Amino acid sequence: MSGFGFELxxxxxxxRSGRISTAHGVIETPAFMPVGTAAxxxxxxxxxxxxxxxxxxLGNTYHLMLRPGAERVQRLGGLHRFxxxxxxxxxxxxxxxxxxxxxxxxxxxxxxxFRSHIDGALFELTPERSIEIQDILGADIVMxxxxxxxxxxxxxxxxxxxRLSMAWAERSRAAFAGRAxxxxxxxxxxxxxxxxRRESAETLVEMGFDGYAxxxxxxxxxxxxxxxxxxxxxxxxxxxxxxxLMGVGKPADLIGAVARGIDMFDCxxxxxxxxxxxxxxxxxxxxxxxxxxxxxxRPVDSACACPACRDxxxxxxxxxxxxxxxxxxxxxxxxxLTYYQDLMAAMRDAIAGATFDxxxxxxxxxxxxxxxxxx
Length: 375
Known about the structure:
The chain is an alpha/beta fold. 42% of the residues lie in helices and 19% in strands. It is built from 15 helices and 16 strands. The chain has an eight-stranded parallel sheet with strand order 4-14-13-12-11-10-6-5. β10, α7 and β11 form a beta-alpha-beta unit. The chain starts with a strand and ends in a 6-residue tail after the last helix.
């Protein structure tokens, strides 16, 4: 079993390419993590996820503790064996889901008491219990337990929330046993307030984590504000640790964040969009529900090698989507995840070749051209 570590390979401006080593394999960065919240990437088999180029996926403490239960997963051999994913797994701490999904929650310095959104059963989630669950699951990357700051929030509310998260981060750090090949990430909070973001980043760095995430963004503040927050806090984080922007985002968001020094991402957008008929392409997003695709035999994206683009035309995909066929969700999810992984690989190549700015400009120009004209 290998140790956990991060190697910075190349920089181009503030953009970085690197390599994260874990107990279950290597993650080449910049990396995008498909979301497998409840031990499954929706509409995909693990083999299919791997074929898109994904090296790491995300699972979630909140969902897995409620169903099927962390201890049950442990008895069945751990999360990797349970879901048949041999590669690295990052587990979100559950803080966001407690705030967004749980009923009748009560937040205190100790943690959060809440009722399950599934059956109303009462649970308590503390920093110590969150870390314990993630360890029981066998996560390669464990996230500190934090509070999801509401949006919008005034500065006083954001400050109180951030400082609670910092107290929980310290307790998470103390509870983390450091299993071989696993690492613990702290999460920078502070909403849209630069002083709070700086305070949070400096506090976490002083504690010392294996990696650092930036949380509480992409919740409605807009891309310009997201990038400003990254410009504020990323220079305060150590160069020799991976940096993870949580819950982001659209392709242009990924490129802008990589340009500022982010190494890792997760987002439900490519999978959720695939299930609703939207495909991401090199010329922008395409809605396969639209009637203009009904007799179009061309692929969604001629430059894509995924099964949806290789084997089927837009007309057939349009038919599947409009008919509510599960195959449509499967094929478009496969396509979107492939597109995202191709984008990350292209960014890694551009950073290695010191051409990232040119790559970003060419991407923006191609996206601005819009989709191919209807037949």
